[in-house]
Structure formats: C-alpha cells, structure tokens
Fold these 2 entries.
Entry 1:
Amino acid sequence: MKLKNTKFDSYKLNENILKDIAAMGFQNPTSIQAQCIPVALTGKDIIGLAQTGTGKTAAFALPIIQKVAQKMDMAALILAPTRELAEQISQMLCKLGKSSGARVALLVGGIPIKEDVKALGSWPNILVATPGRLIDHIYSRSVDLSKIEILTIDEADHMHEMGFLPQIQQILEVVPRERQTMMFTATMPKKIEQMIRRNMRSPQRIEIGRTMTATRAEQKLFRVSEQDKLLLLMDILSKKSQRVLIFARTKRKVDQLARRISALNNNVARLHGDYEQAQRKIAMEGFRSGKFNILVATDIAARGIDVANIEHVINYDFPSSAEDYIHRIGRTARAASSGLATSFVTHGDLSCLKHLEKLVSSKFKLIKVGDETPQARSSEHSRKYNKRGPKRKSRY
C-alpha cells in the first residue's frame, strides 16, 4: 500500500524507505532534499553547498539506501571529518534503511580495532568512516573498496581545514573510477575546487541554505572588550536555564570557561580535541539527554553535533569566517525551528563581521557593552560570583 502521509513518495523511493521516513516523523522534504534526491537517484555527480541544519544527511542517505540496500557487497562509502558526524550519519542510515536491508559499518578513531574487524565482518553494504581510520584499514588491507558505486564526502571544507585532503586523495585513488560522487560543503576553497575538477564528472551544483539559518535564528551581537567577555557570559547564563552551546576558540579557553561556569552551574560539559572517545561520548550523551544543559566546545570538536532543541548558541569567540558563523548558529536553527544566537564581537572581529553582513545582505545591530546596562549587570553578577565561586568545586 502506498503511503500518502508524506511527499517523499514523489521521488519513487521504495515502500520500505517511505515507511521508515514516516516512522521518523519526516513529512515534507527540506529544500536540499527536494533538489538533491531526484538528481542523486539518476546517478549524476553532485556538489551540494549547504549549511548544517538543512537536512543534507537525509538528502544523500535516501538515494544511497535506495540504490545499495539490497546489495551483498560494500557499495557505498561516506566520508566525514569527525567521529561525531560519522556516528550521526551512521545512525541516520540505520533508521532510514531499517526496513530496506541497509547494513551499515562505522570506522572511526578512538574505537578498538577489534570493533572495526567485527563491523567489517558483518557484510555491510554501506561504510561510514573518517579518513584517517579508513587509511589505516587500506594500508593493512582489511577493507575492500573495489565494489564501491557511490562515494559521498560530507563537509569537504572542514576536511580541508583539518588537513584531510591528502588522505581523501589517497582514498579516491583506491575506489573505482566508474562511480557516482557526491560532495557536500558549506564553502568552496580553491583546493576543494581542484579536487572536484580532478575527481568528479560534470557534477550538478545544488546550493541551498547559505543564509537560511542566519535568517531563522534570532541574533544578538554584543560589541565587547576581551576582558569583559567573561562577565557578560556569566550575566547571560544567570538568566537562562535552557540548553546552551558555547563556542570558544582554543582547548585551553574551553577548559577555563567550563571551570568558571561550573562554579555557578554544575550541569556543564566540555568538548575539545584532547578528549578521548569515551569522554566525548559522555559529554555528548549527557548534553543530548539533558544531564548537562551547557556544553562548551571548540568549533572543530563540535562538528557533527546533532542535538535537538538547542535553544541558545553563544559565540564566546567570534568565528574566523562568515561561513563558520552561519554554520554555528545553524545548531540552534535546525530544519524548520528557530533559536537564539548570541555573539561577542571585539575590535579584532569587525572585519569578519563586515564579511558576514555582505554574505547575508543584512546589517547587524551591535549592542555596546561598556558603561551600559549589560556591563553593569555583569559587574554586579561578577561580585556575587567572586564572593561564592571558590567555595564550590567543579564536578566535570
């Protein structure tokens, strides 16, 4: 019986996929899904320019499931820059391919090799991996990529930022030349363009969502000095009990902020590159479940965070690019929802702010924090904090 409660049936997806789409509560395709799915089903190469929160995972997952779920061999490979994003993609594939015979294996760093061997021994037809871990298996000849028909590279620009392009090029030399390639990226650095020209066949460019999340999220930008940022942050957090994601530039600053915040709020987790997989899992699962209502993270470590109902994103350190700003605030304005994004802007951030305004074709109002009310409240709150803060120890 054909399902009528979803518009996904117009893409000629099989009935098992439609059943799993309905079970997940998906009703209307997002813009990236509506444009990507029919093209991907034809086998054409795709360049998708899309931010987080636009639904791009399902945009490539659904065509992959349709085309390879019944195959015995490993026919699809998906590369992601971080463990968290790879896990998120794997989970989405398992849910959307539950009734279709999709068998998904996950290869990421921080997991014992014996777990990889077990995953590869389960005859997966879809493999999700981070580049470094997959290269390890290629070198040890423990993975066979000779039957790959579809290759998807997610967040290619962040692959570039993290130095993974040489590994990706090695992987591209191992997989069959006759394949479908889909690449998703928020920005298009020159090296990404070069990789596309060398390894894709007349790809169709699909661009969506570059400014959509910036439009959906309510945004507040504070012009503040570096030394006043902590006072302002404490003032904001003292008034909010909702789920908050805070971005800081360095690992050291993440640790410092988490310690300071935990003196007033014990429900704080932190996430950065020095954390082992078990620690990252505790932080993420705790934030997702509500055990921690505040997560402090570096931008790279936070790639792939898929947590519903993040009401507030705070850019403690303003991002170094306008595209990263849109990517970050997309954490709170996911799919059709909205949220609050607060950013601290110092003098050194003004050039990036101008680039952002040009990208989104909008002028942002800067709330000056100095002798004005936010600063005064922060100072008063700081005196209270200094009076009682040292008496309490961090639990995280």
Entry 2:
Amino acid sequence: MIVYGIPNCNTVKKSLDWLKAHQIDFEFHDFKKKGVTADKLNQWFEAFGWETVLNKKGLTWKKLSKEEQAAIDSPAKAIDYLTANTSAIKRPIIEKEGLAVLISFDEEKYNETLG
C-alpha cells in the first residue's frame, strides 16, 4: 500500500495515525520531494474525478486569481497545474495493490476499505 501526500498536512497525519493504529503497513510517497507524474494523476482522475483530486479548499488554489482558477477547466490543464503545484493535490491518496482506493481522510471509509 502506498500513501501519497505531504508530511506536514493534518489530514495526512490523521490518515497515517489511523493506519499505524490498525497496524497496516504502508509506504509513504511525499510528493513535495518525489513529485507526481501525469500518468499517476490520470489514474487518480479515473478513480476519483479530476475535480476531486484538485484541492480547491487549500491555500495553493486560493492564492490563484479568479481568472487563473477559471482557466483550469479540464483534466489536461489540471495535470499541468498539479504536476507543477503538488500541494494543490487533495491528500492523502491511498493506493492498494496498484489501485487508487481512498482520497482524503474519512474514518468510516477507511474502516470499510482497509479495516
């Protein structure tokens, strides 16, 4: 299992704490340090939808002007933006056996999917 995120994110911390408490082994992929590929983003877009993967509640997105936000209106433009601005990816994203299975942290969904 791979957990994608950034270590100083509170939602990522909750997720990692939950996994550790349930003794679930995982590898952590810090996309601030390791980045993320367009192919990986496309996989996540297929699993969750591109507008879900794009974190519009975060500071990175909110720093954009209304015009810049409006210009990110397709999966291709979202990929360009997210590969350059990984902190705008909703996190964490959890992959199990190569498939994206969870995004963000919701204890009930974690129990259903991983518990």
